[in-house]
């Protein structure tokens, strides 16, 4: 496994007063690269992934992001509760990014891990930094799958879906999440996180409404939920998230997100 020397990267955050005016998806930093200073928005993941170690330096070191650990540990605890050996699972890491979540899944013993991300830069970063984690890593848009890609994914026999730090800011359409969820077998596992305020959002097109409808409508059965600080903002304030582990009962109707 490649070593990522994240602490060698010089990252400059906005002043706390400037950061207070920024919502989570508006935050930015400046990075010294090749003798020049570049400004990069946090949600410009392609640019972040292209710089080895920048994601870790920014989110893990400076902003104290703990979501990969929280979500995967919560999943591990629930598997242990029912006596499911994680080595028997085939997990879909949806919005896999540079492989940090896949690495945690591997550490808790998940047997087969397949990553999917929309960005080729994400796959390149995962293959560069964590080449041994994934059994397969595909660059795909789940809202526009070819018949061949769909057949290959369905043939994987997924019984676990993990989605960390990807939901709620239009980085992942609700339809893509629904398509990923429907690739998982009934009685399979779902582990994800979302910012707490999105669960209170009554926008019928939003993730909060979809997730609550899935819970209320018997699409999933919640097994564990915890509120925690996903990371701090650039102004130093905690960003409160909810991590949920559930078991799938049936497919989500795609009409709910069309």
Walk me through this protein's architecture.
The protein has 10 helices and 10 strands. By secondary structure, the chain is α/β, with parallel strands linked by helices. The chain has a 7-stranded mixed β-sheet with strand order 6-5-4-7-8-10-9, with helices on both faces. It has a 3-stranded antiparallel β-sheet with strand order 1-2-3. It starts with 10 loop residues before the first strand and ends in a 10-residue tail after the last strand. The model is unreliable at 1-5 (pLDDT under 50).
Based on the model shown, name its key terms.
seven-stranded mixed sheet; disordered N terminus; three-stranded antiparallel sheet; 258 residues; 25% strand; globular
Specify the structural class.
alpha/beta
The overall average pLDDT, rounded, is: 91
How much of the sequence is in beta strands?
15-25%
Give helix and strand order, one letter per element, not per position: EHEEHHHEHEHEHEHEHHEE
Number of strands: 10
